[in-house]
Specification:
about 325 residues, single chain
């Protein structure tokens, strides 16, 4: 799979488009005309559609973690399905009690930058319309041009160290790639946490044919760093994370089984102790009702109950009477 992806705009108000409203209404109205197998096939596409509905919503609204029922009602979807999409798959994050999407944050930042550029262009046209021609000489109050930041070897080596640690390498990086790393870092105001994500996603690589988890080269990573920095980027499964999760689940399952075994042993010990303590009719009836858990129709035919009755001389009716008295 290619690391770079073409971009297309997605209108925030797509769901409010009259034609889309008609489309959704028509499918909702005629859903009974589709076979059960067809509807099952549409489930995955429905999840994808709900994801985009959430993205559209987040472009114009905050979504508090405790407001999922409200959004589920707004989107006409089951709240559990909404929670599954929001809390799984690493599509959204929780910050300060709210859900956020890096895709949305990037789009909003891009919109802000475009608005600022449009404002600057409008100001230039306005000034030219008033006869204020731009000259090669800077105005007295114009901000001085920013100088390129001085190369920082220590910073670059910190980023390379992250790369080598992620890929378990001791790679010597060329001066060309070092400069690329520095330029990417400074021009885009990145943090070391972003580089962690870039190299972490890159290590996951792609599934290509029979080859699994094929990682890209450092050159490819630097060429497509913005794709690797995106949580929405489709890569091979994070097998290390899946393995850790599987091991954790296995440990939890072992703990559960061990706890159940210990509990069974304790119950058996209580059972054995109570049986050994039987010495008369009352203790025998109490044991039957507390530990044997037999329905009334089974009492006359139970071998153990017959043995107790013969030994301590009581009837089935006395067992039932004691049971009902205890329940009152």
């Amino acid at each position: 799979m290619k690391a770079s992806k073409p971009y297309f705009s997605h209108d925030i108000g797509t769901k409010s488009d009259e034609k889309i409203i008609r489309l959704m209404f028509d499918f909702r109205k005629t859903k009974n005309e589709f076979s059960e197998s067809t509807l099952k096939d549409l489930v995955a596409h429905a999840a994808y559609g709900i994801y985009w509905e959430i993205i559209e919503y987040l472009h114009e609204n905050n979504l508090n973690i405790d407001e999922l029922d409200m959004l589920a009602d707004e989107l006409r979807v089951d709240a559990d399905i909404l929670k599954r999409i929001l809390n799984s798959y690493e599509l959204f994050k929780q910050t300060d009690g709210k859900y956020i999407s890096e895709r949305v944050l990037r789009n909003l930042k891009l919109q802000e930058e475009k608005s600022e550029k449009a404002r600057q262009s409008a100001n230039k046209r306005h000034n030219r319309g008033k006869g204020k021609e731009e000259t090669s000489a800077p105005e007295a109050d114009a901000a001085p041009a920013e100088e390129a930041p001085e190369y920082n070897e220590e910073l670059v080596m910190s980023i390379i160290q992250i790369y080598n640690k992620k890929f378990n390498k001791s790679q010597i990086v060329s001066n060309t790639n070092k400069q690329k790393i520095f330029d990417i870092h400074t021009k885009n105001n990145l943090s070391l946490e972003v580089w962690e994500k870039i190299f972490g996603n890159a290590k996951r690589g792609w599934d290509i044919g029979d080859k699994k988890n094929v990682p890209p080269s450092l050159k490819k990573i630097l060429e497509e760093w913005d794709s690797f920095a995106s949580d929405d980027y489709f890569l091979a499964p994070d097998r290390e994370a899946l393995a850790r999760l599987r091991e954790e689940r296995e440990r939890e399952e072992e703990k559960r089984k061990e706890a159940e075994r210990i509990e069974r042993e304790r119950e058996q010990e209580k059972y054995d102790a109570a049986r050994e303590a039987i010495h008369d009719k009352k203790s025998a009836i109490d044991f039957i009702n507390k530990y044997m858990h037999l329905p009334e129709q089974m009492l006359p035919i139970s071998k153990a109950v017959r043995e107790f009755r013969q030994q301590y001389d009581f009837t089935v009716e006395e067992i039932i009477a004691a049971r009902r008295e205890a329940d009152e």
